[in-house]
Specification:
Radius of gyration: 31 Å
Distance between the termini: 83 Å
CATH class of the domain at 23-209: Alpha Beta
Strand order of the largest sheet: 5-4-3-6-7
Amino acid sequence: MLHSKTFVKKTRGGKVNKQVREHYLRDDIYCGAPICKVCDSSTARLSPSASTILIVDTNVVLNQIDLLENPAIDDVVMLSIVLEEVKNKNMGVYNRVRALCSNSLRRFFVFANEHHKDTFVKEMNKESKNDRNDREKAFSNFPVLTSKSIELAIRVAAQWYQTHLGGATHVLLITNDRENKRKAIEEGISAETIESYVKSLDRPELLDLLVQPTSEDVNMVEVEDLRPSKRKIMYTEHKPMSEITSGLHRGIYHQGKLRVNRYNPFEAYVGSESIGDEIIIYGRTNMNRAFDGDIVAVELLPQDQWHEEKSLSIAEEEDEDEDVHLVPSSTDDAPRTTSLVQGSAGDLNFASSHPSGRVIGIIKRNWHSYCGSLEPMPMPAGSGGTAHALFVSKDRRIPKIRIHTRQLENLLDKRIIVAVDSWDRLSRHPSGHYVRTIGEIGDTCNLKQEIGGRDTESEVVLIENDINSRPFSSQVLACLPPLPWSVSSGDLANPIRQDLRNLRVFSVDPPGCKDIDDALHCTSLPNGNFEVGVHIADVTNFVHPGTPIDDEAAERGTSVYLVERRIDMLPKPLTEGCYQGEQRSLAIHWVHIFTDGIVNFADVRIEQEMTPDAEIISKRYTKSVIKSCAALSYIEAQARMDDSRLMDPLTTDLRNMNALAKIMRLRRIERGALTLASAEVKFQIDTETHDPLDIGMYQIREANQMVEEFMLAANVSVAGKILEDFPLCSLLRRHPTPTREMLEPFLRTAAAVGLNLDASSSKALADSLDRAVGDDPYFNKLIRILATRCMTQAVYFCSGDLSPPEYHHYGLAAPLYTHFTSPIRRYADIIVHRLLAASLGICKLPPIFQDRPQLTSVADNLNYRHRNAQMAGRASVELHTLIYFRKRYGIEGPVYLTTRSEKGGGEWFVDEQQQKIRKMDGSLSYTVLQTVKIHMEVVEPQPNRPKLQLMLI
């Protein structure tokens, strides 16, 4: 059956178009219940013994997703109209619901009520002004159902299920909307609130998962025990969005993302484009219930208050409930240069040079689930009742969260996850609810780390950084090629894929690396030039657009590397698949690489003819089949190049390639590419317990730099190729030039130790860094580490979103750059592979490249996932450093001058210009970058929050 509706729609250009919406209705859409006598039971997803089938409305899904994910809640019908509205309102919740519906172990069934002839709501309610505004802002092609129409459609579907199943099972509509529940009951539909239903299950622990209802819901719950009239107002009321919007337009308010200082949780920063500077927010009162990552509206304080704070101190964990002001120190991961040496006991005299402000409204919340533990407290008298407890996140930037729990005794010694529900201006703390238990708290402080505790803390790292470590679904695994896989005769006969098995191809990677996706070859030509090939795994041969495996890779974005394990973007059969060939069983990459022996594999190749001076004569891009002759580690490759006795062809290829790489590297540096540094550490891990056995600095060899140079060159080359053919939809990577404000603290620090650094360009800065040497061999690396902290983040972007001058990569001094060389661990590279294949005429460009907003959204997710992967890796290093603390390399953090227990600590004065800190009585002084001795100790100033404390001795 065809249902059509005609309507008019105004375009962005102001024209009015007449459009007809055709909606196909069917009578063969099954209900999903195995007890049904009418529908095909082979499609059933619900339990055959279900006593109750639940139909949930949109707000229940949006607000109670933590409860729905609990295995105790099953036999749920998810209406397609509800899924669509959830998708429009919260993509994160939508993805979680889709995961539930696709999980074969859960009984969730998606019913296409909008396409069933008996459940389709024909008449749409008249749109309100707000509904119309929302639709026009979203540039919707068709009018959307109003909230009243959606409620009606949900009730119609519930009524149909009751009639359709004929009383064989109880159909229950779950809604917290008072009016919707009243209408449902009047219409003969069984309906309950979510709280009422959970109570009927006689599972008290499930009540902990409930989000507290809002004032519009059926059952109101007081946020605090005190009556509102008796409660003190803790925070000012947030401005309504209409007033915020008006204030932003008039320049009265300023919008930006709030970033809370990692070391000082009562200090935050809001980067404002409208004033071109950071606005500092001092104290929780001025933060006004904003969380780290919230998009906020800020009002500047009067300028005479910007320098008001003269006596400032660093907060310890026990200060968390005090609204104190702290030394401004960090906008991101590390302290500002002005406070690399920080105090904890005395006061520091400091005058802020940045504008100060206060949050007057929240534009977009960044609430999510947080990991931590409950603050220790005595057990209340009696048992079985609800207890109030304060949750303390492991992330100090997050304020304590008040929860209600019926299982306090079982949670006090556990790492748990808590979600935030609300933050009333009458409450010092936000309110939230318990989600789940991760495990026993790890005893990192006493180095008696049980395996369960260590695994718990590693899980916390993943959760805190929103890393998806769940096993791949059956739908994803079904996309894998049959194993064992090998190059077929059809692959060899395919005209788009060249047979290059005669080439001497090799790979060079870190020791023990299994997710290998690149290889090289370097052949001497009769004319004295070299044919150099960069071979990259042809991942897109197996990961096709729009498939479950592609969707999963796009959502994960990147592989995540922890100290003790790797979280893959793609299933291991693709990254570490097996190939049986030449009577040897080899562990290989499915399409490209190996651990030893000779195997066949397919790849995407960039081949260049280069002169001995590393000048490129010509280049070619092809798909091919190649045969490898060796898989070398960096150590093995370096040993071959250094051993003058070895003159075999493979070693000669390595030396030739290394000679070319040195020239390329020097030329790149001469153009202004920066050689920066980070404090990288490498752990030796026990293969059975996964505990750290040893720790040391990561060593960079010429072999590392050789591979890096050719991978960089390949990425630059592909960026130019895809942009030439697809100027509006290429995925590129840029590194914005740091602003003078970002570089200023670093330049002041350098000047304080006698270095006059020139940061007028990347070339000038690179040359200055080369000259920054001292008596300490580590000095230059320290300067480069500090320079790294001043840089902006490199990000992915769609070429059509920016102008060509903005494509520039500052760190590499390259006008164009992208990621192409690691497709098994970065989804950005998969996108670029598809662009290159289309550029070469091998295949058509997938539809997503015609939808620039969607492509921009993909780029944003890749940036988010890349950042989270970096943070998870760092957190993993911090965790294992706590476990193994007798030797420390590359460890960083605030250095405390005195402890709170010390008497007569005295005041300390910070001289920003000279980058010095000294006691007011002149008895002691220290200069930034001065070599000092410190005492290092794992301490636990607040229960369940161990940290590495650095104390000046």
